[in-house]
Specification:
Immunoglobulin-like; single chain; 5-stranded antiparallel β-sheet; 21 helices; Beta-lactam/transpept-like; alpha+beta; Beta-lactamase; 5-stranded mixed β-sheet; Penicillin binding protein transpeptidase fold; Glycosyltr_51/Transpeptidase; elongated; 24 strands
Length: about 675
């Protein structure tokens, strides 16, 4: 009885030690979690394979995606009792030891798939102590994983030569395809390779690969798995060279889609549209020259899914390795629609509100129009369509630059101020005085196309359904967003382009361009049906490209993108709603003029309204310049067709016409109020 007690105590102590060892030294299963990623598009078409951080090609294996014939053949050769043993096949171990003793050499190691998996997780020299550790680890693995999970882990880690690990990586490298359907010769090669991966690599040692494949074919034939005809065909099939490259399309976009995801990724991208956008960007960049780069974003408005994202025209052009959709740049005038939208929300203006486009100083800031001319009183719609600067600054002054910046930030597009001691947002924000990325502009323009609701961009197919139900942040009212879209759709189209509303099949594009200070960044942003589109053209280093504006460099590309997006992706009811016939709303009450002050505008005394002025010679003497006269609050400033008048030696505003024809003469008082008369000049050049 004593010996029974001692035996029981000994067994209990041994079990306790084993339990403690199992908990203190668990198997390192985490190595199987470090895998490469295969990023496919929304329909499952492969786009790009991304290696592990240590530069191995190792894709996570899933049995349902692997040819079941391969699985059966593998277990016939490597581990016939895999589904029945508990990690160590003692019958197989004894048989391997007996056959090796008879042969006088090691014929078979007797290792199960689970033991081989343990060795792959912890590579060790092939010694008896190592074998004992593998057996212990095999039991640990069997206690933690199902048989299916163990087989998938083995097929994820199995070595296939060089930095190729796992069945999926091997199939891509050697056959150029996934392992869902394999031929007999491919099955035999993929079983033979892990046994001696460096000796049997088909790309480096085709003779060794052929010998290994023949050995497996012979074994499968001997086991009755292959008949004589299939075995002969498998033996004589051409050996692959291993020259297939892993897919590497959509470099920047797939990197963003794969961020924070383990294993394979189904991106929201559309492979066909993505390929066309990359080709378009490269072609237009080559035409632009001077190390020009191009970035393009196409976003599906209902889901905010990114359908195409081109981070650069080419990685062979300077700065091409950067994802330029994620680099903050000055947006130029691309933010003006959102300033006016907020003014519409506040009841300060509507599309038909009159607003002043005349020189005006705001403290130390005095904006100027791009063409350095002024147009007097204009409608808000005209100011936005022609991207007039002074009206936009007037609107931002009324809305408040800090409030406008806060609204952008809450929408997901925080403006950035770089350099200088002043970090407060000023009125220069209306003209691109802060940095935004193309992705952030896409958020804003997608909100414009979705009734004013801003949501984050979506990069994976899994997130799309969630995005539809997400309410988002309302940065403007739906009526204001619709009015802005209507204004932008009527903006002058690029040269040679018929407006979409006049063409039956062409997409109607509501767009805005932007050009940053010094011609560093050219932008075009817009809404076309179901899609928000952003195009940036410039140099990655921020160097200027004199004369290249958003209208000339980026807008033609945006219209090409709109055409191709409509062709590949189409639209739905939401798109048709965004393309409804336009309605212009006339202002009433206070909205008739953006200036709400009660003081009277200046009164022009000379020249009188609709006057005809003689500016020819009188008795052979040249005509004297006209002296402009009027009365108003403070000193008046005078403009002829938007250009400041000259001042004579006496300090009086004078005007000497240089041609015959009609002119607009404007007077502006110190509060920015304006009056205008139209006159006709005759007597010059025979008039």
């Amino acid at each position: 009885m004593i010996w029974l007690k001692r035996s029981a105590i000994a067994i209990l102590a041994a079990l306790t030690v084993l339990f403690a060892l199992d908990r203190i030294f668990p198997p390192p299963l985490e190595r199987g979690e470090t895998v490469s990623q295969l990023v496919s598009d929304r329909r499952g078409r492969p786009l790009r394979a991304i290696p592990t951080p240590d530069n191995y090609w190792r894709f996570q294996a899933h049995l349902e995606d692997i040819d079941p014939v391969f699985i059966e053949a593998l277990l016939e050769v490597e581990d016939q009792r895999f589904w029945r043993h508990g990690g160590v096949d003692w019958t197989g171990m004894m048989r391997a030891a007996w056959t090796s003793a008879l042969a006088g050499r090691v014929v078979s190691g007797g290792s199960t798939i689970t033991m081989q998996t343990a060795r792959l997780l912890e590579p060790r020299p092939r010694t008896i102590p190592s074998k004992l550790i593998e057996m212990f680890r095999a039991h640990q693995i069997e206690a933690r994983l199902s048989k299916k999970e163990i087989l998938e882990l083995y097929l994820t880690l199995a070595p296939y030569g060089g930095n190729i690990e796992g069945i999926r990586a091997a199939s891509w490298r050697y056959f150029g395809r996934s392992p869902d359907r394999l031929s007999d010769d491919q099955i035999a090669l993929l079983i033979a390779l892990p046994q001696s991966p460096e000796v049997r690599r088909p790309d480096l040692r085709p003779q060794g690969a052929d010998a290994g494949r023949r050995a497996i074919v012979a074994k499968l034939e001997r086991l009755g798995y292959l008949n004589a005809g299939r075995a002969e065909e498998a033996r004589t099939s051409q050996m692959p060279t291993g020259a297939y490259a892993f897919p590497s399309d959509a470099w920047h976009a797939t990197a963003r889609a794969a961020r924070g995801v383990r294993g394979d990724v189904r991106a929201s991208l559309d492979a066909r549209l993505q390929a066309e956008m990359e080709a378009l960007a490269l072609a237009r960049a080559k035409e632009a020259g001077r190390e020009a780069q191009i970035a393009i974003l196409v976003v599906d408005i209902p889901t905010r899914a990114v359908r195409a994202s081109v981070g650069s025209a080419s990685r062979d052009i300077a700065g091409g390795w950067l994802d330029l959709t994620a680099q903050a740049r000055s947006p130029g005038s691309a933010l003006k629609p959102f300033i006016y939208a907020m003014a519409f929300d506040d009841g300060e203006a509507s599309a038909s509100t009159r607003i002043s486009d005349l020189p005006k100083r705001f403290a130390s800031y005095q904006p100027d129009n791009f063409d350095r001319t002024f147009r007097g009183d204009v409608r808000v719609s005209e100011a936005l369509q022609h991207s007039l600067n002074v009206p936009a600054v007037l609107a931002l002054d009324r809305v408040g630059p800090e409030r406008f910046a806060a609204t952008l930030a809450l929408a997901g597009a925080p403006p950035r101020i770089y350099g200088g001691a002043d970090t407060e947002f000023g009125l220069a924000l209306a003209l691109g005085g802060a940095g935004l990325t193309a992705r952030e502009l896409a958020i804003l323009y997608a909100a414009l196309g979705d009734g004013g609701r801003a949501k984050p961009l979506v990069w994976t197919a899994e997130e799309e359904a969630e995005s539809r139900s997400r309410k988002g942040y309302r940065m403007m009212e739906a009526e204001s967003a619709g009015e802005i879209l209507s204004i932008l759709r009527r903006a002058p189209t690029p040269e040679g382009r018929i407006p979409g509303r006049l063409t039956a099949e062409a997409p109607q594009v509501a767009f805005k361009t932007g050009t940053s200070y010094g011609f560093r960044d050219a932008w075009a942003a817009g809404v076309s049906g179901d899609h928000a589109i952003i195009v940036w053209v410039g140099r990655a280093d921020g160097a200027p490209r004199p004369g290249e504006t958003g209208r000339t460099a980026a807008l033609p590309i945006l219209f090409e993108v709109a055409d191709r997006a409509a062709y590949h992706l189409g639209g739905d009811g939401d798109a048709r709603a965004r393309l409804m016939p336009e309605r212009r709303h006339e202002a009433d009450g206070a909205l008739q003029s953006f200036d709400h002050s009660t003081a009277e505008a200046p009164h022009i005394l000379f020249p009188p309204k609709d006057a005809e002025l003689w500016s020819g010679e009188i008795n052979g003497a040249p005509a004297r310049p006209f002296v402009l006269a009027g009365r108003g609050e403070g000193k008046l400033r005078w403009f002829i067709d938007g250009q400041p008048s000259k001042i004579d030696d006496a300090g009086l505003p004078v005007w000497r016409p240089e041609r015959a024809g009609f002119y607009a003469v404007s007077a502006v008082d110190e509060e920015g109020r304006t009056s205008e008369v139209r006159v006709r000049v005759i007597g010059i050049g025979g008039s």
